[in-house]
Design goal:
718 residues; eight-stranded mixed beta sheet; 37% helix
């Protein structure tokens, strides 16, 4: 087999080394006539370093690069520390290899030296591509033709090979420009720029800076809104004074560092949307040609390196079936790179917030994450905590997709698989890329599309005190009890309107009315906003003359945790307690310490540890997450009314439910625990599941035993 590689950058050279490592002949076609010292710094995280170790080049990288001790996030204006992600030996132990910062030119030189001269051709610009059942022909700009068995397009975001496969495609501008510079060490004396990622974040702009040669050369990436650079065209040259104007208010150390720049070049930040196929016949794409991404997860080069190892291993195993091998390579890589593409865009959005309130919310979230994720696994493990050398030897379906679900995850029954698929496709890459704004819109779309309000049910906007809610009941409901319901969504997403269908079934279960509450959401409204709204809504029901004994407090996921926190708050305040509590897959431990949080991470289509960390930290921010009104699992549960808890085997919040039931039982609470098999997170919201009907029937019988029937006419009837 002979593999042609279009492009001699990091992805192309690593692919050549990896293929040769597997005994496959290669030829790299690089359009440049010679390698030149281009670019600035690049970060090689553990996921890529593991591959480079296998390929025998890590030692050379270690000799010229830097192992940063941490990532330090600081406020651009004040210099105040916002967040710190430990690296160094600690990260190496955690992820299997260290993080390296290195000059891009040094890395390219190391990789190029590992590819023999006869396997590289410089000045070889690809002009046209063709293939048949037996091979691939590449026509170069000089008119010559090269033949091979496989062609791998490693030719970047403007890939000629990709254009051959897919035609003209739109690329997107992120409306951000990046100034880059390299500063010799002697110009930075006295600034105390340690061997760390020294990062500063301000409104709409960032400084990403670090050493790329130990005590020798320092790299700066300064990103600014595109509107701040006015010119008819952009090229690699830049006006230093123009860059400095964008950082007029930077704190003294950051400003002094920037003033030492002697030359800068400027580029735009571009990306493409994920695509559903990279391969056709004997031609495939790799790296930025396949999945160009914004550079804010330090992941672009790493994904190219992962691609290279995967492609080499798959081709080595399936040399007699090249098209099949390329499809397997794509199947193994596409879900992961799509997840990283979306995650990188979400980070760009997070890092470049412009409004003061959103900056405050972001910094508050970082404060919360420092409390429950001190090793920054959620922030960076998404990209780094992955061993492609090991994973490529396992089944392709083990790779995590954009929602953090194992791509090959399947349930046993068609009904439960239908529910899993609904969760699996609830959030698209574009939704994830837009951060919590996109997740909110996607979740409301998911609920409204799949769970419409049934006929014969009234849903009326209402207010419980100063808290918005919806009042839901059957049109012919005359009497009955009341459910006060809190929707799920990790305190970050979801709405009362999205839970109307489920609310109608809760109302039927108590033969009465359900009020579903639009409590305020994080990060705009962190703790105690949600619990304050819950207490106000409950007291408003009492004010309307509804007896506490006829009220069932309900919630799913975060709403289940909020329902429990509400009852703890009411007990502490001396208020009359509701007659019963129904909690479906309750999020009761925002420290994420339950064993199922890791054991089933990747198996739950609706929730994963990274997402719940992001959500929980957005909610409690600077508050203590073990406060029982944040995490009711840690509260004194004595004296609570009868409690019905349900969850699915295999979901990440399973241990939140089981530990809650165990602690409540020990506290003397009348507890009913129902764990269902072969199902999904908050399964009761899926009306077509048999286990949903069985559970709701059981809840109805349980409610009849524990609620004192309200003899007043329902407001729906009135």
């Amino acid at each position: 087999m002979r593999v042609l590689i279009a492009g001699g950058g990091i992805g192309g050279l690593t692919t050549a080394i990896a293929l040769r490592h597997q005994g496959i002949e290669v030829l790299v076609l690089e359009q440049a006539k010679v390698l030149t010292e281009i670019g600035a710094g690049i970060q090689i995280a553990a996921n890529a370093a593991i591959v480079l170790r296998e390929l025998g080049v890590e030692t050379a990288i270690r000799a010229v690069g830097v192992k940063p001790l941490s990532y330090d996030y600081r406020d651009l204006r004040s210099g105040k520390m916002l967040y710190q992600a430990p690296l160094g030996d600690e990260a190496a132990d955690r992820y299997g290899a260290p993080m390296y910062n290195i000059h891009r030119a040094d890395l390219v030189q190391i990789l190029s030296e590992a590819v023999p001269v006869e396997a590289k051709r410089f000045g070889a610009r690809v002009a046209a591509v063709s293939q048949d059942a037996d091979g691939v022909d590449v026509t170069l700009q000089d008119g010559s033709t090269v033949h091979g068995d496989v062609l791998v397009g490693c030719d970047g975001i403007h890939s000629v090979v990709r254009h051959h496969l897919r035609g003209e495609e739109q690329k997107h501008f992120a409306n951000i420009l990046m100034w880059r510079s390299l500063i010799p060490a002697e110009q930075l004396e006295g600034l105390n720029l340690e061997e760390r990622g020294n990062y500063w974040f301000g409104p709409g702009r960032t400084l990403i800076t670090y050493w790329v040669r130990p005590k020798n050369l320092y790299s700066i990436l300064a990103s600014v809104p595109a509107s701040e650079v006015t010119r008819e065209s952009w090229d690699e040259s830049g006006d230093i004074s123009e860059m400095l104007r964008s950082f007029d208010d930077a704190e003294p150390r950051a400003r002094a560092m920037l003033e030492e720049c002697r030359s800068v070049f400027i580029t735009g930040m571009y990306y493409r949307d994920p695509i559903d196929s990279w391969s056709s016949g004997r031609i495939t794409l790799l790296g930025d040609a396949a999945h160009p991404m914004v550079p804010f997860l330090a992941a672009g080069a790493g994904q190219s390196i992962e691609d290279a190892w995967t492609l080499a291993r798959v081709l080595a195993r399936r040399q007699d079936d090249v098209p099949g091998a390329l499809k397997e390579y794509e199947r193994r890589r596409l879900p992961r790179t799509t997840r990283i593409q979306a995650g990188a865009r979400a980070v760009v959005k997070l890092m470049h917030e412009t409004e003061e309130n959103r900056l405050r919310d972001r910094n508050g979230r970082w404060k919360g994450m420092a409390r429950i994720d001190p090793l920054a696994e959620t922030s960076w493990g998404l990209a780094w905590d992955y061993n492609v050398v090991k994973s490529v030897e396992g089944p392709p379906g083990e790779v995590l997709n954009v929602t953090g679900l194992r791509e090959g995850k399947r349930l046993q029954r068609p009904e439960s698989q239908r529910a899993l698929d609904l969760w699996k496709f609830a959030f698209r890459p574009e939704d994830v890329a837009r951060g919590h704004d996109g997740l909110r819109e996607a979740y409301d779309r998911f609920l409204s599309t799949n769970f419409p309000l049934p006929d014969g049910v009234s849903a009326v906007e209402d207010e419980l005190g100063d808290v918005k809610a919806w009042r839901v009941a059957a049109l012919d409901a005359l009497r009955g009890n009341v459910v006060l319901h809190f929707h799920g969504g990790g305190y970050l997403i979801g709405s009362a309107k999205g839970s109307l269908e489920y609310a109608s079934r809760l109302a039927a279960a108590v033969d009465g009315t359900c009020y579903t509450v639009d409590y305020r959401l994080a990060p705009e409204h962190p703790y105690p906003a949600a619990i304050d709204d819950a207490v106000a809504a409950y007291r408003a029901l009492l004010t309307r003359g509804i007896p506490a004994s006829s009220i069932m407090v309900s919630g799913e996921s975060a709403g289940g945790g909020l329902a429990l926190a509400l009852v703890l708050a009411l007990r502490n305040a001396g208020d009359p307690l509701p007659g019963a509590i129904f909690a479906a897959a309750p999020f009761t431990d925002l420290t994420l310490s339950g064993p199922s949080m890791r054991a089933f991470n990747g198996d739950d289509p609706a929730a994963n540890r990274d997402l719940l960390t992001f959500m929980g930290a957005s909610y409690f921010q600077g508050h203590e997450p073990t406060d029982p009104l944040v995490s009711p699992l840690f509260g004194d549960l004595a004296g609570l009314p009868p409690l019905f808890v349900t969850a699915s085997q295999g979901e990440v919040l399973l241990s939140d439910a089981t530990r809650l039931a165990e602690r409540a039982d020990k506290a003397g609470v009348d507890v009913t625990l129902r764990i269902v098999e072969d199902s999904v997170h908050v399964y009761p919201i899926f009306p077509f599941l048999p286990e949903t009907k069985a559970t709701m029937d059981e809840v109805a019988a349980w409610a009849r035993r524990n609620l004192r029937r309200n003899d007043t006419r329902t407001q729906a009837a009135e």
